[in-house]
Amino acid sequence: DAAERPLPQWDLFGSSFFMFTALTTIGFGSYTPQGSDHSKWVVLAATLVGLPLSVLLHDTLARMLLVAVTRAWRRCTHRRLTTRSEVRVWLAASVLLLLLGGLVFSLVEDWPFLNALYFTTVSASTVGLGDYVPATAAGRVLCMLHTFLSLGVLASLF
């Protein structure tokens, strides 16, 4: 099963993927601090500094996306976007982003579409159960990009 493939561990890319999952609070569990207490201290320090910055970054992204969508709506319709319409736009964007992510991950990771859609939803919601984790380098890059964008879109709903 694609979800059970072993992942390479602590090269620069693997370490970046680990920190991404830690700072987005996904924490798939496929990468964990290895060995010494020193590695645990590094994770603690990086998380204490990085988590607030990550939240700030996603909040900023959400605001930027909201402004961009509002401007695009005005240009296309020549009307203001009501709060009700705004929620509908973000819900549609969220569903589309999850479906598109599911399609891409099904191709890149060779997962059935339902499993890939499940993965994108679990990742975007930061639940991160860890039963599906991208095994390919391309899949991990796409995971970081898709999750980063998804967090911005989903944050716009709240």
From TrEMBL:
It is found in: Membrane. It is a multi-pass membrane protein. Gene3D superfamilies: 1.10.287.70. Keywords: Ion channel, Ion transport, Membrane, Transmembrane, Transmembrane helix, Transport. GO terms for cellular component: plasma membrane. The chain crosses the membrane at residues 12-31, 43-66, 87-108, 137-157. GO terms for biological process: stabilization of membrane potential. Its main location: membrane. GO terms for molecular function: outward rectifier potassium channel activity; potassium ion leak channel activity. Residues 8-65, 95-155 form the Potassium channel domain. Belongs to the two pore domain potassium channel (TC 1.A.1.8) family. This is Potassium channel domain-containing protein.
